[in-house]
Specification:
By secondary structure, this protein is α/β, with parallel strands linked by helices. The chain folds into three domains: 119 residues, no CATH class; 52 residues, Alpha-Beta Plaits, CATH 3.30.70; 189 residues, Rossmann fold. Helix content is 41%, strand content 15%. It is built from 16 helices and eleven strands. The strands form two sheets. It has a seven-stranded mixed beta sheet with strand order 7-6-5-8-9-11-10. A four-stranded antiparallel beta sheet has the order 2-3-1-4, with no helix packed on it. The longest helix has 19 residues. The N and C termini lie far apart (71 Å).
């Protein structure tokens, strides 16, 4: 099969895939692709990988060049994401000789010669937190973030040795943080389960806000699968920990992660933070609370680019209202002079600085430290973290 025919076939497959995906817009793209390939077992491994790359790059376009046909949009995305591409060679031959240009030059070229406009990729720039470099952030959406792992202190040398023996390349960002190429499968490495945690670089940096001491009582109020709790316990294993979430299935995943890491001493509760928490916690008070707040997740869209084009601006204010409500509620369980660690994986000011400003205006807390974690500079997620002290 010549490459023009193969490319035509791949474009048709992508068209069919996108049509099916539109019927299930709330399903994460990664999960949808797994089901799609199960339903189309005739596709070989190479075709699956190629189609997956094309689809992810397509979604990285966001709302740019929306009037162009599918093949053109796929080629525009391939032009920006690759240093070589037979798709670009066939569909946009006039651009192909320039595919090796630096990213900024490629963007400028597309804006001169096509309907592509960079500002259309991410049409919510007016809502970004002020410290974000808008150009660099949008440009980062064209690059798949790295896979980051956090080494558990006593196993750091052992895990690194296992990676080296397996021929897996990595960059050491600090003593316990490694960056690996995205898509690396660590499950096949025997003997190191529980000795590291997969955790984004920015997420690991939020631990600098904890400053917990042995014997203190801490509450991870929206614990999810337990990433922040594991980070807290690695930094200070002597804390007495309560974890909670509204989703029982997520807490079961947390139990599995804690068990794999050899952590047995903690409490767990199912809690809806939008309702009266005293009904379950009574008047219990904590020395520290971690609130990894429900949010738009906009700082992670480099990993889930399908969210960019389906996102609606009104969702920002929806989440901001929830964040103000649950933050105000959990503060009632915090001892005076103790910290609330407010975290989001959002790039929007309404969910970040404006929530902190609201909490300060209520007179409940003072902001001791506020940090925008510029993940887009490190092929990582962009996050926000604030250490707020109860008055």
């Amino acid at each position: 099969m010549n490459f023009e025919r193969r490319i035509s076939q791949q474009i048709r497959t992508v068209e069919r895939l996108l049509h099916e995906y539109q019927q299930q817009p709330t399903v994460p793209l990664a999960r949808f692709l797994t089901g799609f390939y199960k339903r189309n077992r005739q596709m070989g491994g190479n075709d699956r990988r190629t189609v997956s790359r094309l689809v992810y790059r397509y979604f990285r376009l966001g709302n740019a060049a929306k009037q162009a046909d599918l093949s053109t949009r796929l080629a525009l995305a391939a032009f920006l994401c690759n240093e070589d591409s037979t798709l670009v060679q066939v569909v946009l031959p006039e651009l192909y000789p320039e595919i090796g240009l630096p990213m900024d030059e490629k963007i400028a070229l597309l804006e001169r010669q096509t309907d592509f406009r960079s500002e259309d990729v991410f049409p919510f720039q007016a809502h970004l937190s002020d410290p974000i470099d808008r150009h660099q952030f949008v440009k980062s959406l064209w690059t798949q973030p790295d896979l980051f792992i956090r080494l558990r202190r006593r196993y750091a040398d052992e895990v690194q040795e296992a990676l080296q023996d397996a021929g897996i390349s990595y960059e050491q960002l600090d003593t316990f943080t490694l960056a690996l190429p995205n898509g690396v499968s660590l499950d096949r490495l025997g003997g190191i389960a529980g000795k590291y945690a997969v955790q984004d670089y920015s997420s690991q940096q939020t631990g600098a806000c904890f400053e917990a001491s042995a014997g203190e009582s801490w509450w991870d109020a929206s614990a999810g699968a337990g990433g922040k709790s594991l980070l807290l316990l690695d930094r200070q294993p002597g804390v007495n920990l309560l974890v909670s979430d509204i989703r029982p299935s997520i807490l079961r995943n947390l139990d599995e992660r804690f068990d794999e890491a050899g952590i047995r001493k903690y409490r767990q509760k199912i809690l809806d933070l939008t309702k009266d928490t005293t009904a379950i916690l009574g008047d219990e008070q904590f020395d520290g609370i971690i609130l990894d707040a429900p949010c738009t997740g906009s700082g992670t869209w480099g990993r889930t680019p399908e969210m960019i084009s389906s996102f609606e601006k009104g969702t920002i204010s929806h989440f901001a209202a929830i964040q103000r409500k649950i933050a105000t509620q959990v503060i009632t369980h915090l001892k005076p002079g103790k910290p609330l660690i407010y975290i989001t994986c959002s790039v929007f000011a309404e969910e970040n600085e404006q929530v902190v400003a609201h909490l300060q205006a209520t007179g409940l807390v003072d902001a001791e430290r506020v940090a925008l974690l510029h993940g887009y500079r490190h092929r990582a997620d962009t996050m926000f973290a604030a250490r707020l002290i109860k008055r």
